């Protein structure tokens, strides 16, 4: 007879550790009454993790409950200013047309009044991430665009043709050819402003700049977004700059563009007048990076050092509602 003893904690048994659910990210509704997270658990075959959205009571009085359920899973929840919950998923959905957008990650919405989730946007290439303004009806998407496509029609035609021809080859024409754990395809990340009719409007940037795949940071009123971007230089060198893009006019401004510095992690103040960033001199064989916090005016790019004598590598985490204090994480 075999006697099985339950492990003291999940860290005492590898199988228990792998089985343990994973949480990823938090999304808080504008009125502060709803908190949503992504919970990943192993599928029935125990071969992969499947994610779902769960709602948590911020007061801790009611138990958490599941909001979504699908084989493909859901991710990237964010609340609109009206309280609707937006997220991305590859779950099946009805779609008219002969393109392959039904196989891609689409943008979905759970109405604040309740009911089933509905498709907001499905496009060839899918949607990578979504973020909403907290005080305005503005939604900004991160999504891939085929190189050379001038608009969504050209992108859809090129993407669909490549998919139907089952083209798997990738022609690398720039550096780097890898980003973490996947090859860069003939697509590049781009930002879109979603109109009330559901039509995405491309927010264009200079061809010499490469946007990150991470979501943009949207001002509370939705008038502009800020994002770090990569500028490629000679001998495979690159540096990160800070961009401001107006969601209405599409005008793109380089708020921080320092030749020997990298910019990371940006947060916009509640009144939209300032951006707090972490900026560091580029490391060299003789010098290590030294991240420092800076307060940047969102209109002019003028900046002021924050806690310049603090010997910590700080990264901004959140502004307090009064706009006078920034919360940061630091080693």
**Separation, N- and C-terminal Cα atoms:** 50 Å
Q: Give the CA-based shape.
A: globular
Mean pLDDT: 87
- The parts where pLDDT drops under 50 for at least 5 residues are none
**Classification by helices and strands:** mainly beta
Taken in chain order, the helices and strands follow as HEEEEEEEEEEHEEEEEEEEEEEEEEE
Report on the architecture of this protein.
There is one protein chain. The chain is mainly beta and 331 residues long. Helix content is 6%, strand content 42%. It is built from 2 helices and 25 strands. It has helices spanning 14-19, 152-164, and strands at 22-28, 35-42, 49-56, 65-66, 74-79, 85-89, 106-110, 118-121, 129-132, 139-146, 178-179, 182-183, 187-194, 200-203, 209-211, 217-218, 224-232, 238-246, 252-256, 261-268, 274-281, 292-297, 303-306, 314-319, 326-330. The strands form 7 sheets. Strands 15, 16, 17, 18 and 19 form a 5-stranded antiparallel β-sheet that branches. It has a 4-stranded antiparallel β-sheet with strand order 1-2-3-4, with no helix packed on it. The longest helix has 13 residues, at 152-164. The radius of gyration is 22 Å and the shape is globular.
State the main characteristics.
2 helices; 331 residues; mainly beta; 25 strands
Strand and helix map with partners:
Elements lengths: L13 H6 L2 E7 L6 E8 L6 E8 L8 E2 L7 E6 L5 E5 L16 E5 L7 E4 L7 E4 L6 E8 L5 H13 L13 E2 L2 E2 L3 E8 L5 E4 L5 E3 L5 E2 L5 E9 L5 E9 L5 E5 L4 E8 L5 E8 L10 E6 L5 E4 L7 E6 L6 E5 L1
Antiparallel strand pairs: 1-2, 2-3, 3-4, 5-6, 6-7, 7-8, 9-10, 10-13, 11-12, 13-14, 15-17, 16-17, 17-18, 18-19, 20-21, 21-22, 22-23, 24-25
């Amino acid at each position: 007879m075999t006697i099985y003893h339950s492990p003291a904690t999940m860290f005492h048994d590898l199988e228990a550790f792998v089985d343990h659910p994973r949480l990823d990210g938090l999304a808080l509704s504008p009125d502060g009454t709803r908190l949503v997270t992504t919970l990943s658990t192993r599928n029935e075959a125990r071969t992969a993790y499947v994610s779902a959205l769960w709602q948590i009571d911020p007061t801790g009085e009611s138990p958490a409950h599941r909001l979504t359920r699908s084989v493909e899973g859901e991710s990237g929840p964010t609340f609109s200013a009206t309280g609707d919950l937006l997220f991305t998923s590859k779950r099946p959905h009805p779609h008219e047309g002969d393109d392959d957008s039904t196989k891609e990650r689409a943008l979905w919405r759970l109405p604040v009044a309740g009911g089933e989730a509905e498709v907001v946007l499905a496009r060839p290439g899918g949607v990578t991430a979504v973020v909403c303004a907290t005080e305005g009806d503005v939604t900004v998407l991160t999504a891939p665009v085929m190189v050379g496509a001038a608009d969504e029609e050209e992108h859809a035609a090129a993407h669909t043709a490549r998919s139907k021809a089952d083209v798997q080859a990738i022609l690398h024409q720039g550096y780097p050819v890898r980003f973490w754990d996947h090859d860069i395809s003939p697509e590049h990340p781009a930002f879109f402003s979603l109109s009330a009719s559901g039509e995405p409007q491309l927010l264009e940037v200079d061809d010499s700049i490469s946007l990150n795949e991470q979501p943009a940071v949207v001002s509370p009123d939705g008038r502009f977004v800020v994002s770090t971007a990569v500028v490629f230089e000679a001998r495979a060198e690159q540096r990160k700059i800070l961009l401001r893009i107006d969601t209405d006019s599409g005008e793109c401004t380089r708020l921080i563009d320092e030749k020997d510095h990298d910019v990371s992690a940006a947060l916009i103040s509640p009144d939209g007048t300032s951006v707090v960033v972490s900026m560091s001199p580029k490391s060299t064989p003789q010098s290590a990076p030294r991240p420092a916090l800076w307060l940047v005016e969102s209109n002019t790019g003028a900046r002021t050092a924050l806690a310049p004598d603090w010997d910590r590598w700080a990264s901004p985490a959140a502004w307090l509602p009064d706009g006078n204090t920034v919360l940061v994480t630091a080693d």
